[in-house]
Write a structure and sequence with these properties.
It comes from Halarcobacter bivalviorum. GO terms for molecular function: ribose 1,5-bisphosphate phosphokinase activity. This protein has 176 residues and is of the alpha/beta class. It has one domain: P-loop containing nucleotide triphosphate hydrolases (Rossmann fold, 3-Layer(aba) Sandwich), CATH 3.40.50. It is built from six helices and nine strands; from the N terminus they run βαβββαβββαβααβα. The termini are close together. The model has no long low-confidence stretch (mean pLDDT 94). Bound molecules: adenosine-5'-triphosphate (ATP). The site of adenosine-5'-triphosphate has 16 residues, from helix 1, helix 4 and helix 6.
Length: 176
């Protein structure tokens, strides 16, 4: 099977980690859920590697990451060795799509979105950020996404419904 990279992008709080977590058990033998290195403590929806900022910069200097970025004052990275043969799913920054498209032929980018008021209520309910930080996230504006294979995914529905729709999409990509 050809290697495939499925990039998951979308604003903070849109439900990326929740969506990936919901399908993990079912797909763990068919899909590599790539864990990110993050310089903050992961919350309960995440399965990532937490490392100190100082360790992060050592890894970065030593070319450990295929892609790394800063978001909301934290560092995020994907190690080169964590991408495996077959299908890989990775939650990344929308600004880093090219890092993968330059290295892999079959890259699919799934843009997760919800309406502003849904995003607001999800961020408030999660309670990870302060009111001011939430307002900043809601007021961020986004440029047009440049991606080779861009797929839009509306995540405004219940977790159950979103999961079903996401599985449909995933099957299409895997069997494509
Ligand atoms: N379909 C859904 N229906 C209702 N609530 C949801 C849904 N999906 C996610 N949530 C809730 O919304 C909040 C944000 O979700 P999550 O942390 O998965 O977002 P994220 O996109 O991964 O954010 P970040 O990029 O900041 O890590 C969580 O509290 C989660 O429980």
């Amino acid at each position: 099977m050809d290697d495939k990279i499925i990039l998951i992008i979308g604003p903070s709080g849109v439900g990326k980690d929740t969506l990936l977590k919901s399908i993990k058990k079912e797909y763990k033998d068919r899909v590599n859920f790539v864990r990110r290195y993050i310089s903050r403590i992961p919350d309960k929806n995440e399965d990532n590697f937490f490392i100190e900022e100082s360790a992060f910069s050592i890894l970065q200097t030593n070319n450990f990451f295929i892609s790394s970025w800063q978001a909301h004052e934290n560092s995020y990275g994907i190690s080169k060795t964590s991408i495996k043969k077959g299908v890989n799913i990775i939650s990344i920054s929308r600004s880093k799509i090219k890092d993968f498209e330059e290295n892999y032929e079959k890259v699919f980018t799934v843009n997760i979105s919800v309406k502003r008021e849904v995003l607001k209520s999800r961020l408030e309910k999660r309670g990870r950020e302060t009111k001011v930080e939430i307002e900043k996230r809601l007021n961020r504006s986004y440029d047009k996404i440049e991606a080779r294979n861009l797929i839009e995914f509306d995540n405004s529905f219940s977790e159950e419904e979103s999961k079903k729709e996401f599985i449909k999409l995933l099957e299409k990509i895997i069997n494509n």
